[in-house]
């Protein structure tokens, strides 16, 4: 099995966890390659381990059977960006904090990898948002697995976001920003501003305003088969467009169109795993701290 590794710059105990994961993979006798930035970190820390790891540039078409994201959900999102539309399934090993995408604890890596080698796993396809706007830089990846947000600049006042769903005008949001989240991203930024949680396979987006200037404005769930068009007014004639934390500044004369991407991200999950179980574990549903 060919496994493509993604990671981040770790320190202290987390770095030790990375080493433990690599030792597990070494015992599995998997063929390993690492994204070049991650490989450079590994080669500095454990040059002997890297003798069996091939450094690659993820712009090339590496024929991996699976990608392993070692970190938190942020690392997983970067791995999805590097993989793009190549369809390589991604497994998230969590050495970060709260992880919905990276939901395999580092200490369970050996058990999970044994299950994978034996073919005892499933793949979930997660939808992405695609963003279109005039003047997009060639090196800006126009897809988001979690969410797309339009936000006011730090020094600016509230912005107005004119929002159209399909051919129907929805609302002009007077707010600090507006989030359009995928089902996967419904447990991320959108949840923090009061948006609903969607099951991962739901064919919907969530539109969640950030600090709206109206008590009656609430998050809205819409179908994912229609375009969402956003036009922004701002006193300083600019606003921030953010895709999974990757940001670009746009002028208010730039209209943004969101639609469902033509490809999904394929996520590796253990058999018997359920999203309900993840919610209970990560959000501590049903836990009474008084006991």
UniProtKB/TrEMBL annotation:
GO cellular component, one term: cytoplasm
Requisite cofactors: a divalent metal cation
Single GO BP term: NAD+ metabolic process
Main location per the UniProt record: cytoplasm
Membrane-spanning ranges: none
Binding site for NAD(+): 73-74, 78, 146-147, 176, 187-192, 211
Catalytic reactions on record: NAD(+) + ATP = ADP + NADP(+) + H(+)
Active site residues of this protein: 73 (proton acceptor)
Any single Pfam family the record assigns to this protein: NAD_kinase_C
Keywords, in A-Z order: ATP-binding, Cytoplasm, Kinase, NAD, NADP, Nucleotide-binding, Transferase
Example GO molecular function: metal ion binding
Enzyme Commission (EC) number: 2.7.1.23
InterPro entries linked to this entry: ATP-NAD_kinase_N, ATP-NAD_kinase_PpnK-typ_C, NAD/diacylglycerol_kinase_sf, NADK
Job of this protein: Involved in the regulation of the intracellular balance of NAD and NADP, and is a key enzyme in the biosynthesis of NADP. Catalyzes specifically the phosphorylation on 2'-hydroxyl of the adenosine moiety of NAD to yield NADP.
Entries under HAMAP family matching the protein: NAD_kinase
Name of this chain's protein: NAD kinase
């Amino acid at each position: 099995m060919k496994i493509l590794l993604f990671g981040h710059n770790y320190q202290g105990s987390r770095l030790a966890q990375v080493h433990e994961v690599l030792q597990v993979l070494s015992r599995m006798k998997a063929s390993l390659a690492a994204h070049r930035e991650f490989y450079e970190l590994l080669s500095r820390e454990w040059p002997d381990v890297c003798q069996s790891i091939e450094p690659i540039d993820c712009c090339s078409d590496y024929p991996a059977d699976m990608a392993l994201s070692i970190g938190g959900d942020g690392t997983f999102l970067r791995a999805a960006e590097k993989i793009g539309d190549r369809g390589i399934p991604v497994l998230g090993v969590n050495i970060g904090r709260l992880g919905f995408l990276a939901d395999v604890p580092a200490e369970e890596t050996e058990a999970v990898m044994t299950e994978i080698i034996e073919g005892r796993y499933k793949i979930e396809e997660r939808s992405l948002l695609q963003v279109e706007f005039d003047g997009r830089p060639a090196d800006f990846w126009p897809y988001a697995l979690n969410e797309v947000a339009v936000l006011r600049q730090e020094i600016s006042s509230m912005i107005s976001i004119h929002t159209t769903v399909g051919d129907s005008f929805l609302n002009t949001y007077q707010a600090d920003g507006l989030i359009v989240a995928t089902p996967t991203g419904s447990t991320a930024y959108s949840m923090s501003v009061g948006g609903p949680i969607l099951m991962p396979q739901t064919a919907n987006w969530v539109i969640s305003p950030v600090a709206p200037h109206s008590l009656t404005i609430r998050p809205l769930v819409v179908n994912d088969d229609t375009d969402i068009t956003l036009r922004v007014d701002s006193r300083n004639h600019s606003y921030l467009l953010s895709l999974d934390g990757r940001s670009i500044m746009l002028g208010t004369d730039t209209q943004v169109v969101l639609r469902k991407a033509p490809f999904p991200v394929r996520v590796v999950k253990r058999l018997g795993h359920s999203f309900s179980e993840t919610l209970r574990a990560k959000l501590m549903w049903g836990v009474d701290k008084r006991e």
